Automatic annotation (TrEMBL):
Its main location: mitochondrion. This is Cytochrome c oxidase subunit 2. Residues 92-213 form the Cytochrome oxidase subunit II copper A binding domain. It is found in: Mitochondrion inner membrane. It comes from Microcebus lehilahytsara. The keyword Signal does not apply. The gene is cox2. Residues 1-91 form the Cytochrome oxidase subunit II transmembrane region profile domain. InterPro entries: CcO_II (IPR045187), CcO_II-like_C (IPR002429), CcO_II_C (IPR034210), Copper_CuA (IPR001505), Cupredoxin (IPR008972), Cyt_c_oxidase_su2 (IPR014222), Cyt_c_oxidase_su2_TM_dom (IPR011759), Cyt_c_oxidase_su2_TM_sf (IPR036257). One of its GO terms (molecular function) is cytochrome-c oxidase activity.
Length: 213
């Protein structure tokens, strides 16, 4: 769960989110080093009168500033592709949950069980119990097992929606007429919050998601 003035990600609750956070730190360090080098060179050029005219025509310098960015891009691309394939990897699920987006609520169906479906609406502020979160609580939470592979089948009945839970590293669009799939596995029990991340209309910000694991 996020807290006020938070600058980083929420605590990871799934292996995929942990990998995404590692990749973020890896890429951010590369960006930091590049920015520091550029700032150092700019400050050096502004504070010194020494110039090397032969440097501007040096073949070696041109070779270095062509190859070095290519190497840096490879160092970013390889981990990125690895995580991309991990996110799209299809395993044998222990449970399948079908999610349908509506204006403006979610409906869920446990397809492995007969007639087990329900709608999930945001709890109005006047009906909140002490300790519950405004604009994030729902009347019916989704209950899922921990440390088991969960398959989400996500679609929409009307307009574009996006089923998103930041702590799990899951963000999948709900598109009318198309069935999208997402697979995740939680590493620890807890209550995880998310929201629709697509601008789907006037009540777009009132489509919370609550998972109880």
């Amino acid at each position: 769960m996020a807290y006020p003035a938070q600058l980083g990600f929420q605590d990871a609750a799934s292996p995929i989110m942990e990998e995404l956070m590692y990749f973020h730190d890896h890429t951010l360090m590369i960006v930091f080093l590049i920015s520091s080098l550029v700032l150092y060179i700019i400050s050096l050029m502004l504070t010194t009168e020494l110039t090397h005219t032969s440097t501007m025509d040096a073949q070696e310098v041109e070779t270095v500033w062509t190859i070095l960015p290519a190497v840096i891009l490879i160092l970013i691309a390889l981990p990125s592709l690895r995580i991309l394939y991990m996110m799209d990897e299809i395993t044998t699920p222990s449970l399948t949950l079908k999610t349908m987006g509506h204006q403006w609520y979610w409906s869920y169906e446990y397809t492995d069980y007969e007639s087990l479906c329900f709608d999930s609406y945001m709890t109005p502020p006047l009906e909140l119990d002490p300790g519950e979160l405004r604009l994030l609580e729902v009347d019916n939470r989704v209950v899922l097992p921990t440390e088991m592979s969960i398959r989400m089948l996500i679609s929409s009945e009307d307009v574009l929606h996006s089923w998103t839970v930041p702590s799990l590293g899951v963000k999948t669009d709900a598109i009318p007429g198309r069935l999208n799939q997402a697979t995740f596995m939680t590493s620890r029990p807890g209550i995880y919050y998310g929201q629709c991340s697509e601008i789907c209309g006037a009540n777009h910000s009132f489509m919370p998601i609550v998972l109880e694991l």
